[in-house]
Amino acid sequence: MPNFSYKALDNFGATETGVLIADNLNEAQEELKNRRLIPISVREARNNFNISLFKKISSSKLSLITRQLSTLINGGIPVDQALDSVSKQMDSPFIKGKLLNISNKVKSGFKLSESLEDHPESFDRLYCSLVRAGETSGDLGAVLEKTSDFLERKSKITQDIIGALVYPFVLFSIAIVVIVLLLSFVVPEVVSQFSSLNRDLPFITKALLFLSSVFTSYIFYSVLLLSGIAAFVSIRIIGYEKFKSKLDRFLLSTPIIKNSLIDSDLSRFTNSLSILRTSNISIINALEISAETISNSYLRQQIKSITNKVAEGETLAASLSKINAIPALVTQMIENGERSGRLEEMLEKVSTYLENKFQNSTKITMNLLEPLIVVFLGLFVALIVLAILLPLIQLNTLTIN
User: Fold this and answer.
1) Which of 114, 253, 290, 311 could connect to 110 by a Cys-Cys bridge, CB 3.0–4.6 Å?
2) Tell me, what DSSP letter sits at residue 200?
3) Hey, which CATH number is domain 125-401, 1.20.81.30, 3.40.50.720, 1.10.3210.10, 3.30.70.20?
């Protein structure tokens, strides 16, 4: 549904501006009247960059909204009033308008879960299922509190990944730029001074001159451009989903990367599965919904494929043990949980264990990666210096002789 920006007067004559979601202009004006606002101007807010990113509530904001809703609902405040109260705390007119739109639908007689399903870009299937489970059990506030905890942990993992990669990425980019500049401008200018000697240059000097000629050649950049175009066409022919599945499968077989990918994905999966099972959602539905939290498409499809086996009576641990990417320790812990009748509790412990393991391994990897990049850059600069000094040494030896 389109967004409408509005300017209106409240009962006290104060001007209020914001954004609301409606099917058309008339419905937007009616909604303002339902809020006891006098419309001054209402117009469709057009986004020149029609990208879903701008229509989505971030994980950190969604966690904050969920936490506030759980606190208010646990305090005995009705859902629609809780939504109105939370919307007033939001700085973003877009988020405020979305929450008020959900509130108005709740006031019209719809359940909160049904109202949230109108905004799948912000409230995914897992979120709506948890809210529906909370409504069914009559303990919506507690379920929202657990959902907020899950979102905070999910956001923390994402922030840890981004935070760990920023500095090495910047450092590596600077190293590449420095190397390209040295090869493109410094090495040719200096080494060309020795071309008049009519003597063979050292191998290191020749190798660097060859690299320099490559980086300064239009053919090199033409090949890069053609390779990029060929890769794009190939992906379109194969299909993006099939290509991503193959890429994700390759990443799961890469020694250094696979452990971090598996730990982060399985941590989210087991945590969401624990919350869903605690909310009395069937194991089949819980598996299907939790699988959506896995970012690796190949691993996600494998976990989805075990749903039928579990439905036929096979235990969850036995089904998961057939997936090679899942560590044996994880399946053993889940098996112990099933035997003891404390599956939900064990899934939560597995999630915490994997999250801690991911954070520790990421920290160690990044601590090793930073000095490796510095050493790489230092060695390359040393090679350039050596390539310049060797001809000078040759020239000095020739002069002495």
Assistant:
1) 114
2) P
3) 1.20.81.30
- The half-sphere exposure of 328 on its side-chain side, counting CA atoms within 13 A, is 0
> 40 phi and psi, to 5 degrees?
-100, -50
Pairing of strands 3-9, 38-44: antiparallel
- For the chain, what's the residue count? 401
pLDDT digits (tens, 9 = 90+) for 20-33: 667 777 777 787 78
Longest dimension (CA), the chain: 101
- State how far the Cα of 100 lies from the Cα of 345, in Å rounded to an integer: 36
Query: Is 257 strand, coil or helix?
Result: helix
Would you list the domain boundaries of the chain?
A: 3-46, 56-123, 125-401
| Pairwise CA distance, residues 217 & 151, whole Å | 50
3-state SS assignment for residue 341: coil
Fold entry, domain 56-123: Receptor-associated Protein (1.20.81)
* pLDDT number for residue 51: 41
Distance from CA of residue 118 to its chain's centroid? 23
Residue 195 has what pLDDT? Answer: 60
**Within 10 Å of residue 57's Cβ, how many Cβ atoms?**
20
Q: Residue 388: count other Cβ atoms within 10 Å of its Cβ.
A: 18
pLDDT in tens, 171-192: 888 888 888 887 777 777 776 6
pLDDT tens for residues 242-276? Answer: 888 888 888 888 877 888 889 888 988 998 898 88
Cα(23)–Cα(11) distance, rounded to whole angstroms?
Answer: 26
